[in-house]
């Protein structure tokens, strides 16, 4: 029995050795085997092509055009008198400045008229702001109907208006101012069963190649106050 045990023992040791050698050989084969490349996973987002770039450019251009149109609309709103639908002081001064620049460049001519309403405050005080607004609207409509489409009308504030007249002599400008005074003097209003009227005193500044916007406004405004004093004297 002891001899058989010695004969079996060496075989068992040989089996353990060959098993370890086999695992080592398998490991070596695994390391030596070429690795398969794994394709990267995609997120499902399609790469932008030339057509996508053109669409983006078109969209940006449309948005830019819309923004510019909105800006122009806001500018127009900021320069318009909401009550009378004519230029406010800011808008009128911008147009006057442009016009003077044109006159200087091309040796053109023009005239600036500043109008201040007579007897407006008593109407406003006696019959309220709604009556005053009605008077202002009627005056704006009368001025618009008496000037050319190329001329510019604005409200400087309160009951003071301005008119920019193109290409006329000083004589023609004074005749136009007198005609506008008569047109506004002819307005009649009925408030609370009473018929009331207003009027306008007009000052003139002739525009030429030496004119400046602020100086022209001051000249026309000063001339308007002189004219207002004359009309008071005439009515006395």
Verbal overview:
The chain has helices at 2-32, 50-78, 89-106, 120-127, 129-146, 170-185, 213-235; strands at residues 80-81, 86-87, 110-118, 152-157, 160-166, 188-191, 194-197, 199-207. The chain is α+β, with helices and mostly antiparallel strands. The chain has a domain at 82-235: Reverse transcriptase/Diguanylate cyclase domain (Alpha-Beta Plaits, 2-Layer Sandwich). The protein has a 4-stranded antiparallel sheet, with helices on both faces. It has a two-stranded antiparallel ribbon with strand order 1-2. β6 and β7 (194-197) form a beta hairpin. α4 runs antiparallel to α5 (129-146).
Give the secondary structure arrangement, pairings included:
Elements: H1 2-32, H2 50-78, E1 80-81, E2 86-87, H3 89-106, E3 110-118, H4 120-127, H5 129-146, E4 152-157, E5 160-166, H6 170-185, E6 188-191, E7 194-197, E8 199-207, H7 213-235
Antiparallel strand pairs: 1-2, 3-5, 3-8, 4-5, 6-7
Helix pairs in contact: 4-5
Average pLDDT works out at 84
Low-confidence stretches: 1-17
What's the CATH first level of the domain at 82-235? Alpha Beta
Query: Helicity, in percent?
Result: 55-70%
Task: Provide tags for this entry.
single chain, 236 residues, alpha+beta, Alpha-Beta Plaits, 7 helices, 8 strands, elongated, disordered N terminus
């Amino acid at each position: 029995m002891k001899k058989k045990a010695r004969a079996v023992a060496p075989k068992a040791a040989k089996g353990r050795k060959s098993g370890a050698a086999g695992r080592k050989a398998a490991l070596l084969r695994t390391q030596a085997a070429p690795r398969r490349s794994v394709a990267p996973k995609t997120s499902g987002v399609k790469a932008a092509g030339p057509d996508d770039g053109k669409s983006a450019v078109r969209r940006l251009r449309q948005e830019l055009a819309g923004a510019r149109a909105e800006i122009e609309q806001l500018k127009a709103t900021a320069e318009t008198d909401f009550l009378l639908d004519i230029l406010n002081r800011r808008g009128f001064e911008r147009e006057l400045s442009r016009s003077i620049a044109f006159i200087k460049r091309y040796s053109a001519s023009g005239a600036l008229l500043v109008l201040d309403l007579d007897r407006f405050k008593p109407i406003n005080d006696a019959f309220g702001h709604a009556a005053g607004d009605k008077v202002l609207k009627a005056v704006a409509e009368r001025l618009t109907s008496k000037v050319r489409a190329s001329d510019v009308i604005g409200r400087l504030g309160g009951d003071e208006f301005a008119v920019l007249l193109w290409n006329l002599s000083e004589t023609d400008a004074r005749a136009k101012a007198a005609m506008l005074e008569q047109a506004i003097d002819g307005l009649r209003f009925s408030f609370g069963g009473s018929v009331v009227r207003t009027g306008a005193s007009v000052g003139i500044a002739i525009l030429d190649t030496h004119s400046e916007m602020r100086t022209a406004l001051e000249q026309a405004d000063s001339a308007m106050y002189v004219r207002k004093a004359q009309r008071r004297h005439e009515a006395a």
